[in-house]
């Protein structure tokens, strides 16, 4: 048993949902108890998807155990096939159903649904979300693949593999990478799993090579295509200016085209190199930064931070054990020992011990950094609703590099401001603990001090009413106090009682 | 009065959280308790997702995640629990009450948590009391987790002193501000009232034959049964939602204690008038609107009654995960015979709702945005569980929760 408070990754079937939810005309029957339907909200709330994930849960109950769970699965598969008419039906078990050993895949196939059935085996007690996504994508690719002889493939064409549901900025990365490939005249055969149908997956073999944007998701499938069908894949991920240049060269080589038109985009579009060289950025030199995330984004952030911002790396780590080797190797290059852990308490301790000035991490590290009073930018999944901005905010390509510049510099105290803080240290408003105005650090000025200060000369709060006021959440308490006092003053009451408080509430309530 | 509402069963695919979700509010209500789920990574992920990734420094809940070696019998699960709990208590010596919470996986592999709790209570005697309950999705939905938790407390509660006079036990987690309002009201009426769960010292509330039980939440079937087993008697009542719901609830308690109705009138006159005033404002917005409920918290029949009776809304469909007539009887009397759909199949209900196109659909988080995208206004059911909505002073707030999505639709011009 492993003791966990917060987890970086969900179970493997959530990874499978990230694939089917990204795709079109695909449906999954998940043998699972009703509580597992919570996973829908990850997509509809965090990512704000406008459709339910294409998943039918069997929602078996204790009373069904031992007798009817297999029947329930068959009924669910049949109904899902009829209602949603998918091109492919995936069938999987969640952690509880795995224990029942109903063989969901076999059962669904025995029904003769007239739809190809892809069974998934997702060992819930060994594996996690990213593995589940990679495995699901691989099973789909493998199950639907139609081989095309290498000589019949168009060399200057590729598939873009990896973008999926609940990914960190996948939506915007696709557009950047498309533009880079387009500039070099490389045709895009299929993008998958995002917005791809099973029919699209049957055409993967027609492309000259595969661009793998997120190895965590598409690595397994791309390696299989390379091994079994001699379809080469990219290894570099274009996050940051240097990595984007490398990526352009790698892709141009594979496609046999001139990289120059894509390289030229840097001069037109990319402001990071000049911003980083401009004198006002001198203060960034040697800022200590702690990097933690999925392997791809963490390794990329370490390179960008050191080479393109002039930061000092204070720590590098990942929660993904599958990719531990890559992160260890990268950390080695910076003379650090990688932190490989999915225990957020351990990550918190490591960050506190490293005393960084900036954290580049996930939503979990954002909370850790907030508690420690350090600035933080989010660079990787697991993400939260605010990591799905309305504007385009890619991480990849030249525009992605601009976005990294803006979002990583913002949490740091600006150079000029640092001087001002030092100069005015003694002032009441600008005292030592004030901190940067955009960091939550203002909280060091006890919030209660402003919220709870009663204006003088007005009506007096009696003990009960005062105590009641304290129960109101602090962020609206100030308003409640002011309203109640105004209300009492208007009516000429000298004392505010409980009833005054609630009369006022009723009066001002909408 | 028309016949009470019939209950229609429509088994099929459900889309309701499991009882583990209750930990999200219970751990804040019972201040000296810790909740240790014995389950899978899914269970840990569910609680985290339901808590909205609100990351507290170190929350008072955690999951002992079962691994391959626990299932393959390579590790003795009971020993593993002892090890995890020892580590936990060492790290958090302030824990007075530890709940071992069962899940689907722990139920399916028949992990005996009651036995573990007994053993651990002995091992940590004088320091930490260990109890167990199950929030598994194969046995409980959403709010039934609270029921299971409170039911596990009941046998542990002390007996009253011999010859103790009757007192009132208000059962069901309420926001502190609501609990305090009710405590003052009962105090004014001269009714000695206690609350379960109490904020601190959850295990010190006496219960016995002198106890009269007034439920503050409708989903507490097992807790009620456990209390009755201790000799306590149930006061059936509608739930304290809205001005009239709260009035009926208070009156039911007052009747059980022989309080004259003029005394009640006097005590509730002001707050009740305030509630009416607040509701009058919302009635113009909500009156005549057609509202449908997906099953979520078991509060649905009471909320439908409130909307219909106090705000003149029209109820299109009431879905609820489970409807206990013993508890909801007084509400079912007031619903004009509107049927209650118990345990709805989600796809078939979606078909009905799409056809009926109500003005407001009360549903879970997984359905809300997809329905909004289809042009239907929605209200997240979960907010009705997390917000203070009971009592006179909150009647206006409760109405406002329903009015806001409608007002929003009116405002937006994009
Ligand atoms: S439904 Fe069962 S397996 Fe799923 S989260 Fe709830 S208790 Fe865990
Ligand atoms: S918001 Fe405040 S702290 Fe941040 S850069 Fe601007 S002036 Fe500086």
UniProtKB/TrEMBL annotation, chain A:
Record-linked InterPro entries: ChlB/BchB/BchZ, LI-POR_suB-like_C, Nase/OxRdtase_comp1, P-CP_red_C, Protochl_reductB, Protochlorophyllide_Rdtase
A single GO molecular function term of this UniProt record: oxidoreductase activity, acting on the CH-CH group of donors, iron-sulfur protein as acceptor
Annotated catalytic residues: 280
Pfam families in the record: Oxidored_nitro, PCP_red
Listed EC numbers: 1.3.7.7
Keywords on record: 4Fe-4S, ATP-binding, Bacteriochlorophyll biosynthesis, Chlorophyll biosynthesis, Iron, Iron-sulfur, Metal-binding, Nucleotide-binding, Oxidoreductase, Photosynthesis
Residues involved in [4Fe-4S] cluster binding: 36
Pathway this chain belongs to: Porphyrin-containing compound metabolism; bacteriochlorophyll biosynthesis (light-independent)
Ranges for domain Light-independent protochlorophyllide reductase subunit B-like C-terminal: 461-505
GO biological process, one term: photosynthesis, dark reaction
EC top class, as a word: oxidoreductase
Chain residues that bind substrate: 415-416
Recorded superkingdom: Bacteria
Cofactor note: Binds 1 [4Fe-4S] cluster per heterodimer. The cluster is bound at the heterodimer interface by residues from both subunits.
Nucleotide-binding keyword on record: yes
Cofactor: [4Fe-4S] cluster
Catalytic activity reported: chlorophyllide a + oxidized 2[4Fe-4S]-[ferredoxin] + 2 ADP + 2 phosphate = protochlorophyllide a + reduced 2[4Fe-4S]-[ferredoxin] + 2 ATP + 2 H2O
UniProt subunit comment: Protochlorophyllide reductase is composed of three subunits; BchL, BchN and BchB. Forms a heterotetramer of two BchB and two BchN subunits.
Role: Component of the dark-operative protochlorophyllide reductase (DPOR) that uses Mg-ATP and reduced ferredoxin to reduce ring D of protochlorophyllide (Pchlide) to form chlorophyllide a (Chlide). This reaction is light-independent. The NB-protein (BchN-BchB) is the catalytic component of the complex.
Family of this protein: Belongs to the ChlB/BchB/BchZ family.
Protein name: Light-independent protochlorophyllide reductase subunit B
């Amino acid at each position: 048993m492993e003791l966990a408070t917060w987890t970086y990754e969900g179970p493997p079937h959530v990874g499978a949902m990230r694939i089917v939810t990204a795709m079109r005309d695909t449906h999954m029957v998940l043998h699972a108890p009703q509580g597992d339907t919570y996973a829908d909200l990850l997509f509809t709330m965090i990512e704000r998807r406008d459709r339910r994930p294409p998943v039918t849960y069997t929602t078996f109950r204790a009373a069904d155990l031992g007798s009817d769970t297999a029947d329930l699965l068959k009924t669910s598969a049949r109904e899902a096939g009829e209602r949603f008419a998918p091109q492919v039906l995936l069938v999987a078990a969640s952690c509880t159903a795995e224990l029942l050993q109903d063989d969901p895949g076999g059962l669904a196939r025995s029904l003769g649904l007239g739809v190809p059935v892809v069974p998934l085996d997702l060992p819930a007690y060994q594996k996690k979300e990213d593995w589940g996504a990679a495995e699901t994508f691989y099973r789909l690719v493998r199950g639907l693949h139609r081989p095309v002889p290498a000589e019949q493939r168009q060399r200057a064409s590729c598939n873009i593999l990896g973008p999926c549901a609940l990914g960190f900025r996948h939506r915007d990365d696709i557009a950047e990478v498309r533009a880079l490939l387009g500039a070099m005249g490389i045709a895009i055969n299929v993008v998958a799993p995002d917005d791809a149908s099973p029919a699209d997956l049957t055409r993967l073999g027609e492309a000259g090579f595969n661009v793998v944007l997120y190895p965590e998701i598409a690595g397994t499938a791309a390696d299989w295509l390379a091994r079994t069908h001699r379809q080469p894949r990219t290894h570099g991920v274009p996050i940051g200016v240097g990595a984007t240049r490398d990526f352009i060269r790698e892709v141009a080589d594979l496609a046999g085209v001139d990289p120059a038109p894509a390289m030229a985009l840097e001069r037109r579009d990319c402001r990071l190199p000049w911003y980083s060289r401009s004198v006002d950025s001198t203060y960034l030199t040697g800022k200590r930064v702690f990097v933690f995330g999925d392997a791809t984004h963490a390794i990329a952030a370490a390179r960008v931070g050191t080479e393109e911002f002039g930061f000092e790396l204070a720590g590098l780590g990942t929660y993904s054990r599958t990719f531990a080797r890559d992160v260890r190797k990268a950390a080695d290059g910076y003379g650090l020992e990688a932190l490989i852990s999915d225990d957020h308490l351990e990550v918190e301790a490591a960050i506190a011990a490293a005393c960084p000035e900036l954290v580049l991490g996930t939503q979990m590290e954002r909370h850790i950094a907030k508690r420690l009073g350090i600035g933080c930018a989010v660079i990787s999944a697991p993400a939260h609703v605010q990591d799905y901005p309305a504007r385009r905010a890619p991480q990849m390509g030249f525009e992605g590099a601009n976005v990294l510049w803006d979002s990583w510099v913002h949490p740091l105290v600006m150079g000029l401001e640092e001087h001002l803080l030092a100069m005015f240290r003694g002032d009441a408003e600008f005292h030592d603990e004030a901190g940067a105005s955009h960091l939550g650090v203002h909280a060091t000025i006890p919030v209660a001090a402003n919220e709870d200060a009663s204006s003088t000369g007005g009506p007096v709060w009696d003990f009960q009413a005062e105590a009641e006021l304290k129960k109101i959440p602090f962020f609206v308490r100030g308003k409640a106090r002011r309203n109640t006092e105004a209300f009492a003053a208007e009516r000429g009451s000298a004392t505010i009682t409980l009833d005054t408080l609630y009369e006022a509430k009723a009066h001002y309530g909408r | 009065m028309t016949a009470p509402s019939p209950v229609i069963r429509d088994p099929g695919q459900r889309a309701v959280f499991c009882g583990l979700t209750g930990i999200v509010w219970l751990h804040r209500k019972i201040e000296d308790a810790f909740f240790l789920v014995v389950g899978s990574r899914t269970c840990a992920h569910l609680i985290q997702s339901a808590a909205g990734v609100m990351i507290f420094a170190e929350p008072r809940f955690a999951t002992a995640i079962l691994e391959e070696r626990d299932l393959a019998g390579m590790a003795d699960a009971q020993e593993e629990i002892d090890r995890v709990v020892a580590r936990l208590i060492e790290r958090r010596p302030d824990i007075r009450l530890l709940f071992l919470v069962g899940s689907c996986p722990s139920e399916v592999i028949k992990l005996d948590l009651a036995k573990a709790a007994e053993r651990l209570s002995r091992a940590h005697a004088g320091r930490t009391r260990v109890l167990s309950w199950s929030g598994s999705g194969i046995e409980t939905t959403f709010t039934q987790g609270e029921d299971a938790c409170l039911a596990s407390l009941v046998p542990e509660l002390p007996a009253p002193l011999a010859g103790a006079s009757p007192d009132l036990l208000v059962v069901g987690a309420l926001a502190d501000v609501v609990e305090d309002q009710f405590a003052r009201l009962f105090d004014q009426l001269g009714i000695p009232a206690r609350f379960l769960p109490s904020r601190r010292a959850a295990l010190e509330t006496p219960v016995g034959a002198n106890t009269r039980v007034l439920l503050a939440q409708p989903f507490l079937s097992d807790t009620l049964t456990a209390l009755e087993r201790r000799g306590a008697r149930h006061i059936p009542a509608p739930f304290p939602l809205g001005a009239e719901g709260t009035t009926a609830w208070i009156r039911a308690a007052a009747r059980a204690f022989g309080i004259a109705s003029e005394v009640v009138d006097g005590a509730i006159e002001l707050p009740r008038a305030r509630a009416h005033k607040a509701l009058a404002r919302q009635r113009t917005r909500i009156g005549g609107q057609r509202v449908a409920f997906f099953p979520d918290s078991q509060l649905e029949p009471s909320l439908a009654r409130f909307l219909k009776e106090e705000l003149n809304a029209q109820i299109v469909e009431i879905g609820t995960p489970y409807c206990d007539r013993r508890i909801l009887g007084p509400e079912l009397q007031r619903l004009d015979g509107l049927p209650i759909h118990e345990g709805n199949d989600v796809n078939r209900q979606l078909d009905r709702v799409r056809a009926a196109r109500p003005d407001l659909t009360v549903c879970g988080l997984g359905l809300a945005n997809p329905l909004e995208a289809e042009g239907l206004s929605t209200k997240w059911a979960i907010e009705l569980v997390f917000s203070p909505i009971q009592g006179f002073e909150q009647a206006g707030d409760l109405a406002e929760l329903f009015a806001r999505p409608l007002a929003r639709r009116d405002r937006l011009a994009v």
